[in-house]
Amino acid sequence: MTAASEVLSSRLGGLSPTVALVLGSGLGGLVDEVEDAVRIPYGELPGFPHSGVSGHAGQLVAGRLAGKPVIVLAGRAHYYEHGDAAAMRPALEALAGVGVGKLILTNAAGSVDAQMPPGSVMLLTDHINFAGANPLIGEQTDRRFVGLSEAYDADMRAAFERAAQDTGTPLHQGVYMWFSGPSFETPAEIRMARVMGANAVGMSTVPEVILARFLGMRVAACSVITNLAAGMSAGELSHQETKDMAPIGGARLATVLKRVLSAGMLED
User: I need a labelling partner for 128 at 20 to 30 A (CA). Which of 13, 151, 209, 247 fits?
Assistant: First the structure.
């Protein structure tokens, strides 16, 4: 158990969550719905990253969401902030250390598909690590050779599909391509992404998926589409657009997430 795991375990007060969520840009409002919440700033958890991105609160919230025990990470560190693909490793190790076995990742992303407009939600089926960085570089054990053929757990994906159907929420599915950021992609890069099979592009999530699989967690991930990617609409892209549009798709994603939890769809 890591130092952060020990601190977290001591603060949980008997709560034993097996599911954790990482909330992306503009999605932090979901933490306000956590009942009996224990709120811990990242600064109080050894090794936890500091996020310098507006829209990322930087706190861990444990409690009950839709009646089920969960841990929510409101905010993440990004590769583009420090050049460290493993920045989220201490946080995910802490989750694993207190018994979290299922991780749900969310992000804000740009759509490469004109049929998936801003406000949509996309369930990730796979990813393309176009950034080329890897959070396991430097790992000394043979555990670093993590298989990613099933990076996104089929049963967890099926739970999201059922929850979307139950709630009448449109849910797209597709491949997420990770760019390092922080600059947005060029129109030529987006044309390339489309040819390579991507449906959405973004600047996060992939390192966390790799780390989670390394730690033995099962993973599901969803993108909230905040914009059409570069060259697909008039005007320049901006982070403000991301923050403005994320709550729209975020509300849809929250509906699906709460159904997944309340119906016990992730319980073994």
Answer: 247
